[in-house]
Structure formats: structure tokens, C-alpha cells
Design brief:
The chain has 4 helices and 2 strands. By secondary structure, the chain is mainly alpha-helical. It has a domain at about 40-100. It has a two-stranded antiparallel ribbon. Helix 3 packs across helix 4. The protein starts with a strand and ends with a helix.
């Protein structure tokens, strides 16, 4: 088990356990199976999923940015910009895919 330190005070922000090789293998196998289903999903449904993901990122920008601040000591303003940029990118991909389908 290891923890991440908040660099301002020196308290543990969160702890996480390292994965075993078996857990990693299960995750990779699960991702491979999910990709096959995703590939058969119509483009418009994939676009809707991207749109929902973008909306969630935008809604949850504060806690996600807070994780970036704690994990990589990124300035809060920069972390918020990063989260919103990813959200806008997903909205862009969503709109492009709608014009293709």
C-alpha cells in the first residue's frame, strides 16, 4: 500500500493498493471484451456515450481537478483548464461523429 502526500501540509491525501498481476490481467481481458462490443456499437450510440462523458467531465470538473492537484501538484487553475479541455475535445469529437454518421 502506498499513499500520496499533499505537498502543502504533509498529510496523506489518499491511499491505494498496488494491483496484483492477476488483477491487471483481469482488467486487460475485460477491456479486450468490451472493445469487441464497442466496435459493434453503431457510431451514433458511441457518439452519445462521448457526449455523456464530456458532460460528466464538465459537471465534475472540481473534484477531478482536485485529484490532479493532489496527484501531480498541478496548480488548480491549470487542472481545471485541463479537465475542461478534455471535455471540449469530447464534445468536438461527438459533433464530428454526428456529421459522419
Amino acid at each position: 500500500m502506498f499513499g500520496e502526500l499533499d505537498l502543502s501540509p504533509t498529510k496523506v491525501c489518499f491511499c491505494e493498493s498496488a494491483c496484483t498481476q492477476e488483477e491487471v490481467n483481469r482488467c486487460v481481458d475485460s477491456a479486450k471484451s468490451a472493445q469487441k462490443v464497442w466496435a459493434r456499437t453503431p457510431l451514433w450510440k458511441r457518439a452519445e456515450a462521448l457526449h455523456r462523458a464530456a458532460a460528466i467531465l464538465k459537471e465534475q470538473k472540481a473534484p477531478i481537478a482536485d485529484c490532479l492537484v493532489k496527484e501531480v501538484a498541478k496548480a488548480l487553475k491549470d487542472a481545471v483548464v485541463e479537465v475542461l479541455s478534455e471535455s471540449y475535445w469530447l464534445f468536438f469529437v461527438f459533433n464530428r461523429s454526428r456529421s459522419i454518421s
